Every structure is written in C-alpha cells, then in structure tokens.
Amino acid sequence: GSRVAAALLGDQIVVWDVASGTRIQEFVAGRGRVEVQALALSEDGQLLATGGYRGLLEVWDHEGRGLVSFPYESRGGERPHLTSIVFNQGEVSWAINGRVYSFELTLPPR
Q1: What is the pTM of this model?
Q2: For residues 94 and 110, what is the distance between their CA atoms, to the nearest angstrom?
C-alpha cells in the first residue's frame, strides 16, 4: 500500500500506511540534533530522506535504519537551510540555500 510520512516535534518522524491508517514506523532524525524541515519518500516507499536547518540530509530505510548522510559544509559563516528533497529514479536531490545537490543511490540489495 501507499505510505505517508510526517515530521512531528521537530525531529520525530512517523510513517503511516494510508490504506489501514496504521503507524508502521517511528524514529528520531538527525540523532536528535536537527529540526526536520523537509522530507520525501522514494517512489517505492522503501526509503525516506530527511533534512533541516543544519543542512544535514539523511536517507533511511523502511525500518528506520540510517543508510547514508550528507553533512553540509558551511561557507563563510552562512546558516545552511535545507528546503526541499526529491527522489527520482534512484537519485536523491536536495536544495540548500538556493543550490541543488544530487546523489545516485547505489544501496545493497534488500
């Protein structure tokens, strides 16, 4: 079935199964150090990406295990602000301070 995800209380992520209304996953993003401002589910619903004001993008599997993270290196004292995330055909793209970054996800088979 289809899934929907939401960030609660800043860093708490909850994923629901839309058909049943059941919570199927709950975890803390950024190891509790980041307020989530953007999130996206992959096309197949198996991956979730989260990001926020500190510029940290994290990709999680369907069991809430962190698979990969991309910390943002601040330039000249700027405050990183991650504003959007999208999955597209095996890539994850995100925007920080008006710049777009992209990474091809080559993850181990499940």
Answers
A1: 0.82
A2: 25
Q: What is the pLDDT of residues 91-110, one digit of tens each?
A: 999 999 888 999 998 765 55
Please tell me the distance from the alpha carbon of residue 32 to that of residue 29, in angstroms, as a whole number. Answer: 6
Number of residues that this document lists for the chain: 110
Q: Please say whether the dihedral angle defined by the alpha carbons of residues 33, 50, 64 and 110, taken in this order, is positive or negative.
A: negative
pLDDT in tens, 21-66: 999 888 887 666 668 889 999 988 888 999 887 788 889 887 777 7
- Amino acid identity, position 101: Y
The torsion angles phi and psi of 31, rounded to 5 degrees, stand at 50, 35
Q: Is the dihedral of CA 28, 32, 37, 41 positive or negative?
A: negative
SS3 content of the chain, % helix, strand, coil (to 5): 5, 55, 40
